[in-house]
Structure formats: structure tokens, C-alpha cells
Amino acid sequence: MSKFALKKNGFTPRRGPVVIVVLDGVGVAPAGEGNAVALASMPTLKGIWANSLTTELKAHGKAVGLPSDGDMGNSEVGHNALGSGRVFDQGAKLVDNAIADGSLYRGEVWQAIIASAVANDRPVHFIGLLSDGNVHSHIDQLVAMVRKADDQGVKRLYLHPLLDGRDVPAQSALKYLEQVEAVFTEINAKGERDFSIASGGGRMLVTMDRYEADWRIVERGWKTHVLGEGRGFASAREAVEAFRLEDPELGDQFLPPFVIHREGKAVAPIEDGDGVVFFNFRGDRAIEISRAFEEEDFDAFERQRFPKVNFSGMMEYDGDAKIPSKYLVSPPCIENTMGEYLAQNAIAQFACSETQKFGHVTYFWNGNRSGMFDEKFETYVEVTSDLIPFEQRPWMKAAEITDATIAGLRDDPNIRFARLNYANGDMVGHTGDLQATIVGLEAVDLCLARLLKFVAAQDGVVLITADHGNADEMYQFKKKTKDIARNEEGKALARTSHTLNAVPFSIVDPRSQGEYEWDTSIEEPQLAHVAATALWLMGYEAPEGFYPSLIRES
Length: 554
Hints:
Blueprint lengths: L17 E6 L12 H4 L3 H9 L1 E5 L17 H10 L6 H10 L2 H4 L1 H13 L3 E7 L8 H13 L4 E8 L9 H16 L5 E4 L1 E4 L12 H11 L6 E2 L2 H11 L11 E5 L2 E2 L8 E4 L8 H8 L15 E6 L11 E3 L8 H7 L3 E7 H10 L13 E6 L14 H14 L3 E8 L1 H4 L6 H24 L3 E5 L37 E6 L7 E3 L11 H8 L13 E3 L1
Parallel strand pairs: 1-15, 1-16, 3-4, 3-10, 4-5, 4-6, 7-8, 10-11, 11-12, 13-14, 13-15
Antiparallel strand pairs: 2-17, 6-8, 8-9, 16-17, 18-19
């Protein structure tokens, strides 16, 4: 018998498909003036929460493989847990451990970069997200590597920070720049050292595109970091302050590119023989810039110059495509996912989202694996995302995702399982625009009503959940009083990051006659339970190692 053989559980499944709907960024929080989820008019969803089998799932911290319960969940680890039915140590924790036990520095890739820089008197460049958001990177990891490079004799080190304002407060860049500048000042005081910032910009405009949504972002980063082209400033602080003076409301994630100049020239364009470390551990926004540094036949944009550098990612961002070819820390090995089990059992499945989250219902859902397990039994549909700020079109592609899912299920009645992601709560929530986020959520609710009606007509079941919170807290809170933080004019300060809140989980089964119920022996339900729950409704037991189903026979 194949190790992927699924065992029947005795439950007679519905005739139609089991559909998982991920409401990206929709968490559970008390109603209040900053809770877009509570403020939005969502009769369909709120009716489900009130009248269907509904509970809450933990979606952050250790429940999704992060170092501590003070770490916000994110879409990558959330979809890993949803798709694999288990919890794996994730990027942040793996890198923390590798730095703590020294294995990162003992690795061949780190040693080669440092040895080459020291022997040939070449600089090492670090590019990545500068914050302590712990979603894509962490400043403490960067500082640890900078200090190690200094200890090992690197004389020139240049940082190209991508400013966050998304996983951390919207205008917090100076805090992180000051931290790293203090470290550089300390190191430079030793003499024979030039550790400094060379270029940077906001993450949503510079370098960190994903899923090939907008290669212009990566091209902007290439010109800034590699070619040294862009608006010049004497320091990163001067750049941030100048941009904020021009637009006081501008969040860090949208800051334009900048280049640090000395004597009228870029301080450190990336040249042949340099070492380059992209220090983000999360993969989705690291793949494209890695390709630009490594591919000889790269054609996504005109690089103008292709320096031969010693390039490394923090982790392997795509295990199938082997991107990048060199990396400092091995990623989690996530095998035997729900998608693989279904494909191995010739069970047809469907996945759909728009570009911004397409990789989440495919790549991350499948355990950080590109492509399909078996094309005969898998259908993936990507709806192209808009290339304008999400707050300007907050409905995003919810309607088109719904259209594509309904069409896919109608065209292939053999599909037994489907998954889709509505990105609005997260992507619009990250803008900090409360009213736009409300509109985005209301658009999803309209689409959800249509989807539910169709699936019910097919005698199917819909599971509705989220991967993490975001839209549930659109304003910052004071830590001590828990009151909303406000500026001098009394305006609430926008929050653009994820939250630590649980997420909802509902089962919508119009034909249910009470033949199943919540398994109350599960004391702390979390995202990893969803895969087995879906399989249970399809008539199968949880595979070995999966977290158990949240439901059982009554």
C-alpha cells in the first residue's frame, strides 16, 4: 500500500466539493473604531459567524512555527500550516537558531563570502527589510551577521535597507536606521573600517516584488543598489526626513528609492567580486531579486550591468527552482502536504487567487513547492492583480476570483476539493486606510454570498477561515492603557501590520443534520487542524502526522 493511501473514516461526504475560503488578514477582535471587520457591513459573513458551526483558531507565534507567541502570524507560515496540516519551525526560528549555535557562520556559503572579501579587499553588501517585524527579516539577525563580518576581518560592509512600515508602525524607519547606524559607528571607530548605508527605499516600491506582479519594483531596486542610480542624500536619515517633509502622511513602505552620496557619487554601487547577502528569510519577496543577481539569461528588465558577485540568500526561497543557488540557512522540509495526498490518490483539486496571493494557495500551501504534484488532478487559476495602490481599488479582484472558482467547479464536476484566497483584508489593511479596508471587506462579503449559493447548489461544503489578523486592528494601541494611540491633533495612528489575534473558522454545510460536532478534546484549535478537518468532510481520516480534525461524529 502506498504511503499516501488515504483511509476512509466512515462519514458519507456530500456530493459536491469541499471548499476552503481564506479571508486573508481577517482576525477576531473586540468591536471598536479601528476594527474594520466589525465596522464593515458583511451580512453574509456575520450571519455565518452567528448561525453556523464557528470557532476561533490560533494563527500566530508557536502555533505556526515562529519563535514566540509575541510573533505575529503571516501569510507564508499560515498557508504552510493550512496546507500541510502540521507545524514546522519557520524561517525566523531557523535563522535565530543558526546564529545562536554558530552553524550559519560555519557554513560553506558564509565562509566563502567572507574569505573572498577579506582576501581580495572587496566589500560585502547586505540587502533586506530593516525592521523587527520578524515576518520577512529581523534587525537582530542582521546586526549579528554584521558584527561577525567585522570580527572576521571584513573592512567594508554596506547596507541597502528596505524600509518597512508594514509589519511595524507606518513611520518607524528612523528607529531602525538609528539602531544600525549606532552599530556601524561603533565598528568604524576601530579604524580601517567603512561600514555604512549605501542605498534603500520603501519595500513596496523598491526590490521586494512578489509573484512577478510588478517587475518595475525589482528594476528600481537594481538601479538603486547595483547601479547607484537615484536621488542622492548624505545619509539615510536625511532621505527619510526629506521624503516626509514632502509628504507628511507617507508611510515607510512607500518611500522612494535613495542613494547615499559622498563627494557627489554613490558611496557603494555593487561591483564585480563583491559579496552580496539578501538577508530576508521569507521567500515570496526574495525570489525575483535573487534571479536578477544569478541568472545569466535574465530578461525581466534590462540590467545594464551584471556584476559577477558572491550572492547568497538567507534561505533557499524556492526549493524546486533552486533559487537562490547559495543560501545561509536551510529552509524547513515540508513534505506530504494535503495537496500531495490528494494528487497521489487521484482526487481532483482546484486553487485560485489573484497574483498577490496566488503563490500562497499554491507554493506555500504545497510546502514551499513550485509547480504541481500531478497536472491531471490539479487546476490552478491566477487572476492578475491591479498595479495601483490597493486603497484606490479596495475591491481588488474578489469578483474575478469568485467568477473563476465558480467556473472551474462548474466545468469540472470531478473536483472534490478547492481552495481560494481573498486578499482584501490583508493587502488593503496594510495600507492603513480604514475606510478603504471596510470597502474591501464588504466587496468580499458580496462575493462570498454568491460563492456559497453556488457551492450549496452543488451539495458542497465551505470552510471559511483566515491565515492571520490585520483588518481587525487598523489603529495602534498604547501598550499600558490599551487606548487608541493618537497624534497631537487627536487623529488615530494607523496600524499597517498583522495582529496577534485569533482567526475565525466556520463550516457552512446546508445539508448538515447534526451528524458531526466540534471535537472538544482539542483544547487549542489552530490553523494546522484545518487540513484534517477538510479531509474528514471528504470522508477520510487524517494522514499520519497531521493535526487531528476539529470535528467528529456526533
